[in-house]
Design goal:
Blueprint: H1 2-21, H2 26-36, E1 43-48, H3 53-65, E2 70-74, H4 84-87, E3 95-99, H5 105-115, E4 119-123, E5 130-131, E6 141-145, H6 154-159, E7 162-165, H7 177-193, H8 203-217, H9 221-231
Length: 237
């Protein structure tokens, strides 16, 4: 009985997606399909207590550009606000996860990501760090970035599975966080696409994300969905 109900729900969900996409332009339909094929959760980004919203917003824009679907924002002290002039609408194509409900949001975030199979990689210039070029990608990685002034917290560094540095050859010891994230994501997503690792989204994830994106490109998605369900009410088993 439960299996039949699930199959019916899946079928209706597919019909809903097709219905919504029928109201989108052909160009937007093609973009949704093509961009979906390049999306990944094998690499994700974690921002810890970023106090300059323009920098965090620039990271969101970078994540979208390189096909990284999830960004995790830890708000222990600083509350993150999206800067629309910097993010350029990128946030609506991403899944933004915020951690601000407990006393130690850094540990909360790290534990949840580890439970999902992520290796926690803290960006750090420490002597025992691994180079960006040698970072293993055989399992999903969560890249943690801290503030320019203080870097990552001791909690993040202590709980990380790996410390990673960006090779640099000048006198300056650090990069702006948005620049660091851009370098790391461009390099790692390029490397990932050269491997035999299955980094794509699952079919279920693609479907759920396609629904979200379809809603984002329509003027009245709520009204269209209401009409769909009125015309296609779930049938009792």
């Amino acid at each position: 009985m439960e299996e039949c109900r699930q199959q019916m729900n899946n079928s209706l969900s597919q019909e809903l997606l097709a219905y919504l996409l029928s109201f989108a332009t052909e160009n937007k339909q093609e973009l949704i399909v093509s961009r979906m094929l390049e999306r990944t959760r094998h690499i994700t980004v974690v921002l810890e207590d970023i106090y300059q919203p323009q920098n965090a917003s620039a990271v969101l824009r970078t994540a979208d550009c390189f096909g990284v679907q999830d960004v995790h924002v830890i708000e222990n002290t600083n509350e993150y606000e999206i800067n629309p002039r910097v993010v350029h609408g990128a946030a609506k194509w991403l899944n933004l996860h915020r951690y601000n409900a407990v006393h130690d949001n850094t540990t909360d975030c790290i534990q949840k990501l580890k439970a999902k199979g992520y290796s926690i990689v803290a960006t750090s210039p420490h002597a025992n760090s691994v180079s960006l070029h040698q970072l293993p990608l055989n399992k999903p990685v969560a890249l943690m970035f801290g503030t320019e002034k203080l870097g990552l917290s001791s909690t993040a560094l202590e709980q990380a599975d790996e410390l990673m540095y960006i090779p640099m050859f000048g006198f300056t010891e650090s990069l702006n966080i948005s620049v660091s994230a851009a370098i790391c994501l461009q390099h790692l997503t390029h490397r990932l696409r050269q491997t035999g690792i299955d980094w794509h989204l699952s079919e279920e994830e693609k479907h759920e994300l396609s629904l979200d994106w379809a809603r984002n490109v329509l003027k009245d998605p709520e009204g269209l969905e209401k009409r769909f369900w009125e015309e296609n009410p779930p049938k009792p088993l």
